Structure formats: C-alpha cells, structure tokens
Amino acid sequence: MKNLNVNLGSCVRSYCSKANPFEKVRRKLGQGDLSYYDLNEMNDSRIKSLPYSIRILLESAVRNCDNLKVTEDNVETILSWKDNCRKKKEVPFMPARVLLQDLTGVPCIVDLATMRDTAAMLGGDADKINPLIPVDLVIDHSVQVDHSRSPEARELNEKKEFERNLERFKFLKWGMHSFKNMLILPPGSGIVHQINLEYLAHCVFKNNEGVLYPDSLVGTDSHTTMINGLGILGWGVGGIEAEATMLGLPISMTLPEVVGINVVGKLSDHLLSTDVVLYITSFLRKEVGVVNKYVEFFGPSLKDLKLGDRATIANMAPEYGATVGFFGVDDTTLEYLVQTGRDKEKVNLIREYLIKNSLFNNYTDHIEYTDVYTLDLSKLSLSLSGPKRPHDNVLLSNLHTDFSSCLKSPVGFKGYNIPEKEREKVISFSYKDKKTYSLTHGSVVLAAITSCTNTSNSSSMIAAGLLAKKAVENGIESIPYIKSSLSPGSKTVQKYLEAGGLLHYLEKLGFYNVGNRNFEGRIHPLVKANYLASPVLVVLLSLIGNVNVDVASYTFTTKGGQKIKALDLIPKKEEINAYEEQYLKSEMYTDIYKNVKYVNKYWNDIKIKEDKLYEWDENSTYIHKPPFFDNMKLEPEKIHDVKNAHMLLLLGDSITTDHISPAGMIHKSSEAYKFLKSKNIRDEDLNTYGARRGNDQVMVRGTFANIRLINKLCPDKGPNTVHIPSKQIMSVYEAAMKYKQDNVDVIIVAGKEYGCGSSRDWAAKGSYLLGVKAILAESFERIHRSNLIGMSVLPLQFLNNESAAHYNMDGTETFSIVLNEGELRPQQHIQVQMTQGGKTISFDVLCRIDTEIEVKYFKNGGILKYVLRSLVKG
What we know:
GO molecular function: aconitate hydratase activity; iron-sulfur cluster binding; metal ion binding
Radius of gyration: 27 Å
Domain Aconitase/3-isopropylmalate dehydratase large subunit alpha/beta/alpha: 81-515
Mean pLDDT: 92
Family: Belongs to the aconitase/IPM isomerase family.
CATH architecture of the domain at 642-873: Alpha-Beta Barrel
Low-confidence stretches: 1-17, 514-522
Helix content: 25-40%
Number of helices: 30
Enzyme class: lyase
Strand content: 15-25%
CATH class of the domain at 642-873: Alpha Beta
Largest sheet: 7 strands, mixed, barrel
GO biological process, one term: tricarboxylic acid metabolic process
C-alpha cells in the first residue's frame, strides 16, 4: 500500500484530544496494519439507500468524530439524509487534501505568509501556520499565447512566461520549501485538473496511523469538480475557505439534496462527451435547477461512459449549477487507474477497501435520491454552447440560424441588436502573407483547444486529430489569420497524439502546442461571440471559417477537385477506439510522472532563501503584504450597523467573478494601469490581473474593472460608476476611495446569479478593500457567497421575487441595516431601511449567512481572522 501512504505530518485527524466514539466500528483490513472505519458495522439500514456521494460525507464524519469539530449529532444528521436534505441542516466535512492552481494559489500563500507575520506579532508561534493536510499546487494558469501557429510556439511561450512571472515563481518556490505538506508542480506540467486525474488522485488514502479512507478534496478552481468523474468527492471553494481547510478547519456546509440522473440509451456514432455535457448543462440549468445540490449519475448506460467522458461531464458542474456531478467508483474507475500507471496491487487493495465499506458502485443498491431524471443518450445531437453562456445549448444543425437570430435580437444573453444594414457588413484586410481576406459577422478569428473540459478526454482529442488527418490528406487548408492553438491537458496527451502521427496533422492546420490552457483573458476581450464546443468541432469550424453557414450542407473541395461534406470529416467511434487501443499505453503515464517535479529547466534554476518568514519587498508589483490583518487584535471588534450607505453599483443578472475581478489584460484606461505606470512598469511587462493576484494594490484597483461590466448607474458600458454625492462619473475604485475618505458606507445591488463563474477569491477580497459592507442580490453563486462571508462582506438576498426594479432603485437611495453587533442567526430575515427623497420604506431580506460557523466567521471579521485567533490562542 506504499503508493497510498501519504505522510500527513501533524495531521488534522490526530490533533483532537477526545476519543472517537465510533472507534468501535474500526476494523482491520487484511493481515497487516491497515484498518478502516467500517460503515456496515454501524448496523444501520439507512446506509444502503444513501447516494454514494453522501456515504463519503458519512465516512468522513464517522472517522473524524471528536464531538468538537465533528459531533455524533452530525453523523446522525447525515444518516438521516433523506429527511434532512431539504431542511438546510449544517454538517462539517473534512476533505483529505486541497488542490490549487497558481492564479488562486499565489494569493493563498501570500495570505499564509501574512498570517505567519501576524501570529508572530500577536505573540504566537508562526510555525503553527502550516498546512495540516496535503496541498497540491499546479502552475498552469500563467502562460499566455504570445506565439501560435509555429513549431517553436511552446518553447517561446514558456520562456516568455518565466520572464513575466519570475517573481511569482520565486515566491511559490519559497512557499514550497517553507510550508510543510505542500507539493508544487512547475509550469509545463499540464492542466491542474488533468494532472489531478492522472497523477495526484489516490482514490483511497492512508494516514500515519494506517487508517484507510476515501480520497476527497476541495480546490480553488471551480472545475475542481472534474475529479468526481473518478469517484472522488471534490468541489471548488474560494481561496479563503481553502486556506482555512489547510489549517485544520472543516468545511461547513448544508447537507445537500442529491439529484439522480438515470443514464440510458447509446450515443450515436459521431457524438462525444462534450455534446453530452453541453446538453446536460442546458437541461439542468434551465429545466431542473440544481444550484447548491449534488448531481449523481447512475443507470444501465453508465458502464458505456469511459472515465474521460465521466470527467468531462463532472468538469462542467459549475456550468450546470451543481456543487458536484458525481460518478461512484466502479470497474471503469479502477481500469482507468491501471491505464494511467497506478500499481495493480494497490488498485486491487482500493477495490477491496471500497467494496468492504459499501463505497463501491455495485449497480444493485436501491439508492434514494431527492429527485430523479432520465438522460437518454440516444436522443442527443452534435451541439455547441453560446454565444455568451455555457448553458445556452445550440444544435450544430441550427448554428447558423441561431447566430443570425442573435445578431438582430435585443442586447442580452442571446442578442447583439446589430442594425439591419450592419449585419451584412464585410471588412477586407491584408494579412501578413500579403493576401487579402474578408471578415463578416460570424467569421471565426480564434480557435483554441485549451479547456480542461476537453483536453483531459483522450477520445475527444484523438477525434480532433483524426479529423485534422482527413482534412490534410484531402488538401483542405487552414485559414491563416485565425489564431489557433492546442494546449494538451498533460504531457501524456501530447505523447499519444504524437505516437500515431496525429499531432503532425493538427500542426499542419495551425494547432500547435502553445503551452498551457489560457489565452490572455481566457477569451479575447474584443471577440463578442464565443462558443464552447468539442475539439473536433473547433477544428471543423476553424476550417469552415464562419459560424453563420449551414454546417450540415457545407462542403469542402479536395485537392482532387471533388466535394466532401464537412460532417463526413468527423471520425466514427470505431476509428477513435482503434487509435486508443493501439497508441494509448500506461507506460506513457509512468514515464512522464516519475520526474514531473523536475520537468521544467527554468523552474529548476530558481534559487530562493529558505526562511520561515517571507522577506516582503515594498517595491514589488507582484507580491505585496495585504492589509487584511492590519491592526488585528486577539479579540474581535464589534460589528457595526450599516448606516446611510450609498449604492456603489447597480448591476443586473449573471454578474460573473470575472466582471468583479478580471483575470485578463490590464487596460490602459484602468486604475491598475495608472498604478503600474507610476511604478515604471513598461506596457509590455504589464502581464495580467491573474498574474498579479499576489499584489493587493493592483487587485483592488482592478475590482469591477472589466470593460464588459454594465452598471445601471452609468449610461455607458464599462468599469465606471456615479459618485452620488457629487454626481460625478468616475472609476469604481476612485468613487469607493472617496466614500472611504468621507466615512460613508457603500453597498452593491445586483440581480440573479451574482458571482457566477470561477471560484475567484479576489472578487470578495477586492469588494472588501473597496469598503463594500453588503451586497443585496436576487441570488448568489455558491462559492462567491461563501467568499463574501470569508471576507466579512454581508450577502443579502431579496425575498418573494422582489428586486431592485420592484423598489424602483436608481442609485439615489441610502440604505441602513441593523446587524445587532453580529448576533445573527443562519438565514435570518433582516430589515433594510431605504431612504429616497426624504421618504423611508422598510423591507425584509434574507441574510445568506447559512450556517452557525459562518456567523462566527462574520463576527470575527472573516474566516482567516477566525482561524488565526484560534491558532494563536492555542
């Protein structure tokens, strides 16, 4: 069992002084020193009807029960899941590990370093600020596509990545050496979620006492959910919550409903998992509603879904609104572990443990779900999603009509309101090959196979390569001005594409390996229509060159002058399976991952000082000590009421965390740009907001700086607002600082799904530093709501389908909110007093502090202050 042995050091599971009342159900496994907490020995008939995802919560509660952080009542609450899941009952969950990527990982380590300084200042032991469970960080979000469509693209992009980010990488390497239980994989390793699938995931852990338990995790990327395809329970949390988890705090959660999806039927020959998940996303988001719920897949056709297909479906749980999309461990799972180079003996032991503990999907247990829906794979078709949201599913056969409709429809998620005379507009230009080309609405200008949703799936990637092969062999050429790129999710993807020659054909069409996954800004800020599609459709549509054509009838002319239908280029399943069988070998995985820590020569050359406390450089524009703990005392200060607050922003629906805290390019009109220029940073060295998340001075100026932001207080689109007292239009940052200077509270009012998108802790941190006291919205995305509480920004929700429009809010109002010095109850109704033109009205709102522990976080000024006080006090 060596490979399952993770040395947890001062493990969070062994710090408590009280004995586990469930020690009586601990049993030996085999003849050695291995043991486990046997759920069957509880002799409780309710367990067999629990969804597999809930059984993992139950096992964690039983194993970690100390009647302090996890109580016997918590265990009973989970056992009575069927009766409690709709009652918003609070339960703790102690995951096995934490997963980070660099854009969210850097601010986490900045916070930990700052907490060490503060602990020392308060007279505590700085060394207590150490992860107590394994933390894995993969540097995969820093690269930008400066170079494309050339064989040298990857090397050039990687070199530029280190030039831009050397200061950040030095800081990360310091963190790896300074903090215990922290593994950092260097740039060039691959995409974090695929490396998690192929290498980091264990399925079963063993602690330093020989106790076996299921692998589980939380991660600081919303697509952490991909790991649920491997039967490992995991989801995205904010960086703030992840830091607290590292330091020994359980995840506090409300016991979720579990929606069962009964998978039946068989996919038609040309369809891939992306087509499945785009349909699921639309169906669950629009027709079912699974926000804050688990989704668990079961049924007779589950066995026909490969692990890569399951991972693709699990990956997009944030897009369909669920906390997780879970697949229980079965034979397909274990076959994948062997295929990816895990030791067969260990895999057999994993099977034995999971079967004995009723955690293995035997397809016979009668599981009860809160609701059940059927997914018939035979009824699905080729599809995409867009042009603005991932849950707006579009059949490929309807793409041209849907896009034409979007051009003329009113501005919205499915509309651009392009005047009739502008819809047929053609612009000609001369490209660097000296030829003249034309662009119209619908012209493809960017084609990227980069998303973790797709690049982890061998069938999808191979399908794209086989299509490229057919295209090249038929003399079909790529369009040179389209910025195309390929970012394999791991080095194994590159290996199996190279093994059968498919990478060569993709490169012939301009899809060169450019590094990791992101374009600057993920999607270019000047491209307004963006579609999510399978890799095979990305390649096909890049060859067609326009989405405003009927793909079903579109034909190419081969080099022999013959006509070939576009859809005939799409490979069949038997072609894909034959390639996988011949070229996808387990040795690829073992060869690549045995030296993954040392894969990058630039990383290996970085030299650092291995000190316990970080030496902050005040002149750094990448790493800066944040003010979150300034003037902190051992006892929390009283929470003050919100009094006569002005509205900083009035926002609509689906405001994403990227609207709030952009990850992409720093615009010349922005306050962050002005700040960096004052520090003598050249334009070519600006980098991105994502890369500068370790510097609070940049990030607070970047909060609400997205050029696509629509603030209803301002007539024009963009990151501006009205400073109400002066009636002047100015940047959001400038207005917030004026309010702060005048000791005036501010709030934000928004519509539905506030904070959707990536789990971006700076969306909450930036709001806090702007002085925002509360956010009043029609609904919140799960992770962002938690992050707001983590930074002591109060999330409030309209009741009874009320909204800003219901109260005719226009920004001239002031708001007062009584908070009783923080003495709040979970999901309490709170009265808001709104004054406009001398008239005051009152209305109740729902306080979205959902659990008792979140009340404590809020009263302490945030989760990190709560943890730090606990550690310093001992």
